[in-house]
Amino acid sequence: MTKIKIIGAGLAGAEAAIYLANKGYEIDLIEMRPKYQTGAHQTAYPAEFVCSNSLGSLDILNASGLLKEEALRLGSTLIKTAKKCSVPSGNSLSIDRFGFSKEIENIIKSNKKINLIVEKYKKIDTTIPTIIATGPLTAEELTQDIKSEFGESNFHFFDAVAPIVEKKSINFEKAFYASRWDKGEADFINCPMTKEEYEKFYEILTTAKRAPLKEFEANYFEGCMPIEVMASRGKDTLRFGPLKPVGIFDKRIKTEFKKHQFWAVVQLRQDDKHANLYNLVGFQTNLVWGEQKKLINSIPGLENANIIRYGVMHANTFINSPKILNGFLQTKKHKNLFFAGQLTGVEGYTESIATGLLSAINMDRYLKNKNMIKLSNKTMLGALVEYITFEEHKKFQPINSNWGIVEEIICDKKKAKDKNYKNTIRSNRSLEEIEEIKKIIEEQK
Known about the structure:
Helices cover about 30% and strands about 15% of the residues. The chain has 13 helices and 16 strands. Strand 4 (about 85) and strand 5 form a beta hairpin. The model has no long low-confidence stretch (mean pLDDT about 90).
């Protein structure tokens, strides 16, 4: 059977490799780590989670939750494994990052059809069926070759990583466990602030020294905005964003009216299987480390926090997908060549996994002379692919899964105001289409 090259053993590449190997293809999975590290990755494992350990909501009435369910029904090994390696996180899917990556490595290495090659892939060979899934930290040599091959400049932006602290160093006389509006398990650690404490925190944040950005121009992606950049947009921006206090209550405090107990709340989310480490939600940052320590220690409950990892920023790249790709994630110029993952302009872990899976499904069908799969924008995955391949974009930017890109439903105005009603119909509509696609795939094995 035909040999396929998959470049990059991140989330998208690992998903694609496993899917195609299970279809019987010989796979050369080429990954430059650990021989060449990125500056953001910490391990040599495939499918490493870098920025956070959360894949977002599990609720199919949530955009991210629906995307996970779509991928799972289409045969995603990585979503299935993530559930196996999950850690408590309310109604979200958060994982033991290292445990998950080790599990994926075991799956890859135990598959006789997958040849894992550690080297830097520098030049595209368009004569060989290939999926490029090198992610936002693609090696400069390959980046330049992509530019040369397609005549389109890549975009540059920055992705920021949040700090992690040790749980035993958190002061639980001030901090407490709770989930917003008491939904799901109380898995988040919450550090509440009074107005005075928030103003002190804000002053430190907005006057803190930032690390230099070297030769790159900062073009931040809205979905992973550094906290200092958010703060610069207004004093209350954080209070309506990652520090939003609405719906978070300390049950140790008795109150008759549950409107707002606090002025602002910093949330921490479990980062490892054993609940020893917690990351600060929404605290992606490029502050120098000394300033980060000062800022974190100003948060009530984190006065003596042991910081295990400081926040960092790194340059990311993505291709101009509207010009380069069609709706199958196949390049318009070379039918043998597909792209997947964050390099295409989808932003997020689940999004990377889902596009890795779709690229593999379509590579398989292309090589077998079958009609490739183009999901409609009634599905979350279809809407994502439609967005990144829409040729009329005036300024193409990365995109997360969200309801705004999904085809609307027609219903009366009163019912349209009920989000749960709308999302239930949209989710059911999506999963009906996914089941039909699943049948098509299974009928032509």
